[in-house]
Amino acid sequence: MNDFVPISTGIFNEKQGCFTYADAINMLDSGKFDNDLKSGCTLVGAISKGWEHNYFSPTVDQRVSIWRWIVAACFIIEQTQKNGTVEVQNEEGGIDIAALYANDTSSITIYPAAERFALANHVESIAIEKYGREQGLEMAIGMYNGFITTTPEDGMILSDFGRESLTTLHEGYLKMLQDEGMPLPVILH
């Protein structure tokens, strides 16, 4: 088995050296590619090739991380194309670029990490609670797979089911904001 992602993915330079498939999946999950979804998609392709050629066999946790990343990235890309982006001031005083989710009356900024968190919370945790960890994660993977379709022109994009599911999630959040206002920030003591 070849445990290392080929550098030919073009994502890393020689100084960064080799990294394992597990490292690559962790990089996706930790947000390393949240500001460069195109490179993240290239990395997903390299991981998929390694899996296809039996260079490694991902665990169920790794597979769910990959699919969660793909769904979140496809949603962010679609919303960026549909509604554009805005500049948002971050905690360090700098500027971040955020995608917009919008309906006829309101909009919210959306970020890849928050989308992954929402998916883990609303898909995986419910499946695990109902079916147990192993079976629940397999069911979540199946659901994420159903959220995506592939076209010759665009590659992986949201399926109608995926778009409808994510729209329902975001419409619920917008309704909560409308009814209850912005939640108070969490203060750690």
Structure commentary:
Helix 1 runs antiparallel to helix 2 (37-52), helix 1 crosses helix 3 (60-83) and helix 3 (60-83) packs across helix 4 (112-131). This protein has a three-stranded antiparallel beta sheet. A two-stranded antiparallel ribbon has the order 4-5. The protein has 189 residues and is of the alpha+beta class. The model has no long low-confidence stretch (mean pLDDT 89). It starts with 20 loop residues before the first helix and ends in a 9-residue tail after the last helix. A hairpin with a 5-residue loop joins strand 1 (85-89) and strand 2. The protein folds into two domains: 1-57, no CATH class; 59-189, no CATH class. It contains six helices and five strands, in the order αααβββααββα.
Radius of gyration: 18 Å
Q: Work out the oligomeric state of the chains in this entry.
A: single chain
Overall geometry: globular
Largest sheet: 3 strands, antiparallel
Beta-strand residue percentage: 5-15%
Strand and helix order: HHHEEEHHEEH
Order of neighbouring strands in the sheet with most strands = 1-2-3
Number of helical segments with 4 or more residues: 6
> How far apart lie the N and C ends?
48 Å
What is the mean pLDDT? 89
Q: Helix coverage percent of residues?
A: 55-70%
How would you summarize this macromolecular structure in one to three sentences?
This protein is 56% helix and 13% strand. The protein is built from 6 helices and 5 strands; from the N terminus they run H-H-H-E-E-E-H-H-E-E-H. It has helices at residues 21-30, 37-52, 60-83, 112-131, 133-147, 160-180, and strands at residues 85-89, 95-102, 107-110, 148-151, 155-158.
